[in-house]
Amino acid sequence: MRRAVLGSAAAALAFVGLTAAPALAEPPTPPSQSTARAELAALTVAAPHSMDGYARDKYDIWAKQSDGCTTRQDVLARDGKDVVDGSDKCQPASGKWYSVYDDTTVTNVAQATIDHMVPLAEAWRSGADTWTADQRKAFGNDLKDPQLVVASESSNSSKSDSGPADWKPANHAFWCTYAEDYTHVKSVFKLTTTDSEKTALTSMLDTCTN
Q: What's the mean pLDDT in 83-87?
């Protein structure tokens, strides 16, 4: 069993084939503002690579994790509230998911999308085109770094493959954390940036209050 069953309420749910699902872990903590600024300064500025050969499938997203569940299912379990597992102990049957991009809460699991903080296409044009298949899989399924985030369908669609030079969260209160997380992911995976992206990230880091 992937998650512990807690209390009599969980026992009642188990009777109808469901189990209560406390989050597996907390989402990765954003780096500090000072760390993000240092990481941003260290990113290599370069022209975007060609999109020739790009395909989302090359990242093998939503691969199986060691618990037997997919990366998407693990993020839904990790980041949801009042999550109830389905009979397979992987796919949530119900719950609530906060979409920080637009400050909304999603209550239909089918509408809780998982977004890559640094889009797959953006990674491709900033260095992932030269990676091995294993490196791209690690990036597409990264649970260690702040790369995967729950997003409403509308905010995910609005962002699409855009980086911060062309798109910013509607929720201005998230700009600081967005810039910290985005910069950190690019730093960890040694991806390049552009002058316009660097300017946008700097501007959003300027909204940080500590």
A: 92
59 pLDDT exceeds 80?
Answer: yes
Residues 113, 75: Cα–Cα separation, whole Å: 10
Q: Hunting for tokens 């990765």 — which residue is that?
A: 28
With a threshold of 0.90, does the pTM exceed it? no
User: Contacts from 202-209 at CB under 8 Å and sequence distance 24+?
Assistant: 202/37, 202/40, 204/164, 204/168, 204/175, 204/176, 204/178, 204/179, 205/33, 205/36, 205/37, 205/40, 205/176, 205/179, 205/180, 207/172, 207/175, 207/176, 208/33, 208/176, 208/179, 208/180, 209/176
**Cα–Cα distance for residue pair 40/42, rounded to 1 Å:** 5
E strand or H helix at 138: helix 133-140
The b-or-e profile of 28-53 (16+ CB within 10 A means b, else e) is bebbebeebbebbeebeeeeebeeee
Label residue 18 by pLDDT band (50, 70, 90): very low
- Asked whether the beta carbons of 67 and 3 are under 8 A apart, the reply is no
Tell me 58's DSSP state: G
Checking if the pLDDT of 1 tops 60, the result is no
